[in-house]
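ok so for the tutorial part 2 we go from a plain amino acid sequence to predicted structure tokens. step 1 is just haveing the sequence, like this:
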Amino acid sequence: RKKPGLKMSEKRWPGQTDETFPEVFNLKAMPAQPKVLKPGQLSEKDIRQFFTEGYLVVDSFFDKAELDACREAINEQVDDLANMLYRGGKIKNLYKDKGLFERLSFLEKEFPGTNIILHKLGKLPQAFKDVWSNDRLLNMVEQIVGPDITGHPVWNLRTKTPQNQATTVPWHQDSAYLDNRSYEVLQLTAWVPLLDATRANGCMEVAARGHLPGKVATHTCCWGDTWYTELAEDEMVKTLGVDMKKDIVLCPVPYGGMLLINNMIPHRSLNNVSNDIRWSLDLRWQRSDKNVGFHGMKEGVVMRKKDDPNYKMDWDTFDGIDRHKEQARCNQEPLSEDAFETTIQGPWMKKWEMTHQNRHTAKLPEGDVVLPTWHKN
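step 2 — the prediction. this is what the tokens look like for a chain of 377 residues:
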């Protein structure tokens, strides 16, 4: 309820908070590092950089065969999608002669929004699971979140087709998309490109040390013709102390490497001005005793237990919940049965001031910007 004398510009949005949790994200949060490194573990110097700078580029980590399997899984998904579009009368050509790094672009030209459909499908093939739960990778994750590890429910296949606003993500902090409980939990993301990621094809930029206040700055929604939240540069300066001239770091990553970030570091992806699709995976983890902060829609998948070295992951339960359908349900909207729907809605749209309307926001229910009770009891 608006207080007497309160200007609209001073309205508090559900995502805003005065609480800060710097000790969750800075060097004080770094677990004790092993004296003898397990396979895949990084040097203490590297881990310290992650906590002090908020990011770390690891140029070489994955076996190329692991990532090649992910490429093949994407090929299969694109082929399935092309056949679905063809059967639905949306395209006239399957473009079977085009390769992994161009076929989706041709489909997109014939049926705009095809990349969004693929993003929304949210299919987690075995090759992705194998990378996400790789023992070497979990050994490294252990150095950052500790020995009890949960895979976060928000994982993504990024379908970054050339010159496409829908796949160019503006400045943001990841917790801006999650509920406010995520503000006090360190969530680790590995951004894994499936080709050499460069400035030209839209690699990532980070605002070094922008995580140190341990605070989510004020975002707005939605950017351009997308479903993305946006963190304005002046807000990054004012609230997070970012120096836009000195702190912005370009993060090219070779195929086989990864970029590690946390959920408080401001980051963005650049426009893809190359001719190739820049495919990438977002994989996330956190400690298992903390809430994943995903609006009560889906829990994570426990990947490692300190007290149970023989623990087996329960992928069946994790796979059984479609988060995109849950987002629609939590927005109190009827589920769309249209397989060719190219808009995305989610609860983050109601966390922040709606400063720009578009075809995505047009499908949100009307009413005051108040988050419904998504949280499970």
